[in-house]
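W.,

You were right to be curious about this one. When I first looked at the sequence I had no strong expectations either way, so I just let the prediction run and decided to look at it fresh. Below is the sequence, 500 residues in total, followed by the output.
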Amino acid sequence: MFLRSRLTLAATAAGLVTVLLGSTASAVPAPGAPGIGDPYYPTAGNGGYDVSHYNIRLTYNPATDLLSGSTTILARTTQELSSFNLDFLLPVKSVRVNNFVAKADAANGEVVVTPPAPLASGRDITVVVQYEGKPSTVKDATGFTAWKRGPDGAALAIDEPNIAPWWFPSNNHPTDKATFDVSVAVPQGVEVLSNGTFAGTTPQINGWVRWNWRSARPQAPYLTYIVIGQFEVRQSTAPNGQPVINAYGDDLGANAESARASVERTPEVIEFLSSVFGDYPFEAQGGVVSTGVGFALENQTRPVYSTAFFRRGANTSVVSHELAHQWFGDSVSVNTWRNIWLNEGFATYASYMWAESQGEGTAAEIAQYYYDSYPADHPIWQVTVADPGSGNEFDSAVYDRGAMTLQALRNAVGDSAFLQILRTWTAQKRYSTGKIEEFIALSERISGKPLYDLFNTWLFTKGKPAGLGNPAALSARSAGHQVPKAIEKLDLTRNELHAH
């Protein structure tokens, strides 16, 4: 009787593990792939599961750079899994899968999680990772540290294409988007900015303050960020009723007012871009200006700008560029990183369109100016924009030649078809990803014109194309070769962006 009871209890426990973790006899469970299949970044992302939500709850001490806390991941398995990977660089203290302690082996930015029993395909899973470390001291396999830390202890988790591994474990690729809750406790008097809507602050028993943020729309891991430091935080409401939160570093100096004169116009710029690209895809607006970063990045709902963009005065060119990314890059993301033209070429051209709306030269004039400014032997014409190569995603050709490609397309199909193409693209691919070939097919379908030669010349072939075509709407001012008023700010913007 005693032996039988022991065996019954053991069988019951084994059954409970099977129920909670899921296993099946229909197939042999296998490890999830350590990469999602991106040719440029083979280990980015992971196979075997899709994430629906991240709950990131952290404590950060700016004085010591110590980051600690947990990330809870809600996901669904897409195959039988004996183990799966997370992209992460900080030291892991523990991992639980569906409340059971799991084995975690970490090396080279990959954490291999092995639950005590296999996971069945099509099961919802909850993964909780506890961790602690100093992000600025951690390097990836190439020796790079994406976490940025200022001399005053300010910290910025901002970069592209990778930043998530320095502060939360994830399926780190744009093809697996999720919603986010981000909560960070910091000392009193320190501010924390992130994506989405502000869910308020909560006092901690040690006198610290916890800042809470929520992203309710699908968001790629690299677009999820935190900025920690001394900021003036401004809250307002946009004409469309959305919350607007802007933040300006206390150390902006002479650039402070120029930054405010630019970023405070965010709702106006979004209103214009919405009239061109369709409804704004997210739930909140804003921007952050900091001395701790040397570039601008289109973090979802709230881009971050280097103070350097405003050293010559107000600069809405960079604001329009980063806000255009909310459609091209954030809502419609790259399917693989070689499709980066769909982000940067489009955002650059959007800044031309914004300049035109401000009476500072037409988009056609600006594109023609840049086409003329690059001689035939310039390196920009030797980059294949449709496949610039790993590490070259932010080459000036992707931005400038990429924007010229869109003007050439506009010249070929006309304004009406061109705008219909853009609006259809953003609507059909909303919260998803896209490929260059899909955009070409859409352009041909809507315009009714064969566009293979145009795209092949501009995106897939080295060498300077013969010209942009002849836009019917090109202003007579172009005949006088006047340099549009927008060029100075556009040049400043593009130089800083290319430095990134």
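Here's what jumped out at me. Residues 337-499 form a domain with the Neutral Protease; domain 2 fold (CATH 1.10.390.10). And, maybe more interesting for your project: The first helix runs from residue 2 to 21.

Coffee later to discuss?

I.
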